[in-house]
Amino acid sequence: MPSVKIPRKSTDTDMTPFVDIAFLILSFFIMATKFKPPEPVEIKTPGSVLSQKLPENNAVLITIDSTNRVYFSVMSEKDKTKYDAIINDINTTQSLGLTPAEIQNYRQTYAVGVPFGGLKQLLATNFKDQPSLKQPGIPVLDTLNNQLVHWIGAAKRAFAGEKGFKYLIKGDGHSKYPTFEAVISALKKNDEFKYNLVTALDDVPSGSEFSKAQYFVPENKK
């Protein structure tokens, strides 16, 4: 009986499909990655050992920097119409005369830190160029002209009925108490007595589940 010769096959593996899969996975992670939005100013928050994760939706962030400038930010990744409701409310109540393009630009504006008189100039600037603008902060220390009252009121109306809506206050460790007191006063004038203080995690074991960048402590009730 004649012997049967089995043809030899190359042991080389075609890596082309694997390279394609690797690029597909890389593309997926690039598209799905969510980058942290830029902050209007650098804030060095006080430390805290009690921690909860900072929310990304249904929240308003009030920032106080080291020179006591106050900024107002909206956190609503899922529903951008909240931005429209707030800026239209401010535009109407303060008679600012904002154009549709300026109102639309508010969706991309991470933080507002100007008096009402400077809001039109801020929103007329492309959101990519806004970080280069020097914002003087929202006026809060004058009890008769605490403009943060109106921003909080607009946010309260925009988020009315939303579950889990929070007010967050993030203050630099070198900011002064009168500014913080003015922020709390603006909340009180809108009948809002619960808020969260954003702090940096401090004195926790390295590598533990709590060792993350930023947290906020449970609500303070006044």
Explained architecture:
A hairpin with a 5-residue loop joins strand 2 and strand 3. The N and C termini lie far apart (99 Å). With 222 residues, the chain is α/β, with parallel strands linked by helices. It has helices at residues 16-32, 81-93, 100-105, 116-124, 148-158, 177-189; strands at residues 47-48, 59-64, 70-75, 166-171, 194-201, 214-216, 220-221. It is built from six helices and seven strands. The protein is elongated and about 105 Å long. The longest helix has 17 residues, at 16-32. Strands 1, 2, 3, 4, 5, 6 and 7 form a seven-stranded mixed beta sheet that branches. The chain has one domain. Helix 2 (81-93) crosses helix 5 (148-158) and helix 5 (148-158) packs across helix 6. The model is unreliable at 210-218 (pLDDT under 50).
Write the layout of secondary structure elements.
Blueprint: H1 16-32, E1 47-48, E2 59-64, E3 70-75, H2 81-93, H3 100-105, H4 116-124, H5 148-158, E4 166-171, H6 177-189, E5 194-201, E6 214-216, E7 220-221
Parallel strand pairs: 1-5, 2-4, 4-5
Antiparallel strand pairs: 2-3, 5-6, 5-7
Give a brief rundown of this model.
With 222 residues, the chain is α/β, with parallel strands linked by helices. The chain is 31% helix and 15% strand. Helix 5 (148-158) crosses helix 6 (177-189).
Helix segment count? 6
The total tally of domains equals 1
> Structural class, judged by helices and strands?
alpha/beta
Q: Hey, roughly how much beta strand do the residues contain?
A: 5-15%
**Helix and strand pattern:** HEEEHHHHEHEEE
- The average pLDDT value, as a whole number, equals 81
Residue runs with pLDDT of under 50 for 5 or more positions = 210-218
Radius of gyration: 25 Å
Largest beta-sheet details? 7 strands, mixed
What is the tally of beta strands?
7
Q: What is the percent of helical residues?
A: 25-40%
| Span between termini | 99 Å
Give the overall shape.
elongated
